[in-house]
Amino acid sequence: MNNNYTIRPAQKSDSRRVWEIRNHPIFRKYSGNSEFIPLKSHEPWFENKYFSGLNNYCYVLVIEPKVIGYCRLDFNAGKNGYTISIALDPDHHGQGLGYKLLNKSLNLFNQLANNKDILAEIQKENIPSIKLFQKNNFKIYKEDDKNYYLKYKTI
């Protein structure tokens, strides 16, 4: 397992690398939106979403000098909670880094004392993600033909 990493809040300069990871075919396969997102659309969205005072959070996992993963917590007013999304560069799968990224992101988020539900929507065929979230205290609270819906309550 690689222990030479940092997990920190995203910076504006991380936008391009987050975009690259998000558009990787493996991530797109399991994403709620499998469409390719153009960089010219992503950059203003990323800046507005995480750097304009909205109640959203993005953390990145860095193995210097490169961002290799991200974890987003986006406020969903309709659900009075956060929707979580995580992605890791496939070159770094199987090293325990997804667990470290999710766990540390949840800890950083919890320090903000938001006390809101955190919800994840995971395709049933995405077994590694289901196991990752369950290992981080997410519980399945409902399902449909395609997805499991998991919930984590902040402390």
TrEMBL record:
Could you tell me which CDD domains the record lists for this protein? Answer: NAT_SF
Alphabetical list of InterPro entries matching this protein: Acyl_CoA_acyltransferase, GNAT_dom
Signal sequence interval, chain numbering: none
Q: Name one GO molecular function term.
A: acyltransferase activity, transferring groups other than amino-acyl groups
Annotated N-acetyltransferase domain residues: 5-155
Q: Which domain of life is it from?
A: Bacteria
* UniProt protein name: N-acetyltransferase domain-containing protein
Give the species this sequence originates from: Candidatus Kuenenbacteria bacterium RIFCSPHIGHO2_02_FULL_39_13
